[in-house]
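Q: Can I see a sequence and its folded structure?
A: Here is a first one.
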Amino acid sequence: MRMSAVKTVPVLQLSEANREALRRHFLALDAEDLRLRFEHVISEVTLMKYVDAIDFGRDAVFGVFDDALELAGVAHLGLRDEVAEFGVSVVPGHRGEGIGTALYRRAYEYSRNHRIDTLFVHCLKENAAMMHIARKAGMEIVLDAAEVEAHLRVPPGDPVSYTEEFLDDRVGLFDLALKSQFLAARTFTEAMANAAETLAHPLQKEEGGEAKKDKKAA
């Protein structure tokens, strides 16, 4: 794999507890984003059926959370015996941040450590983001008129890759916990500021009324 292994974006493996966050993530993508992700026009009903059908016990799903605890990027690694298909999506506001690359690197790492020997991508030729990831990863790319297939042989895991996956899981959990604390603190601070502003308004009105009474008395 030629892709840089620099870890700058924490990635978390998702579970059933994140299904609702997955729904929000895919609903944040526009029609063209969804067409590129799923290779055809897809309705909201079909999209929700896809999310509901994700089998976390069979497949591996990875995500990158933003500061609002929404999924900025999602990778679905569909597993079939010793072959895995990689699909990825990143919401518009977080593109260009290395999220797609980080998700691919985590999926590759998972594949090594779970006896996957072939990782492949199937996408539309105009999906520039996926093509970039495939080329950067050193995949063997086969083009036809409208679609692309890219394959990569995955070496078996070793002590280093197992350790890296363990550490990446812990970093992902720590990142989510830290962002949760920051969001809670920010929400509390904003609530206190709003409460203080609300309390200040009646006092200002009362002071204004007292001033008018004093003027009349004078």
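Q: Show me another, different protein.
A: A second, unrelated one:
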Amino acid sequence: MSRVSRPASEGLVPRPASTLTPRERQVLDGIKEGYSNRMVGRSLGISERTVKVHLHSIFIKLGAASRTEAVIEGIRSGCISLH
């Protein structure tokens, strides 16, 4: 049985960025700046595990399969700014 390769984001349906919570927007902004999960957590006063939970939610809401895709979708949708 052969497996067909598909893009990781195939099948994910993005939701409007307006569904992101203020904290999810803060986490996404930290990711945009290139921060690790640990650095994002420290800057926001939350645990690294909590950052991962927020990222999971962000990926689902934006239909993203990676941190990079999430940032691109966040910028594209106006959820976070480029600057």
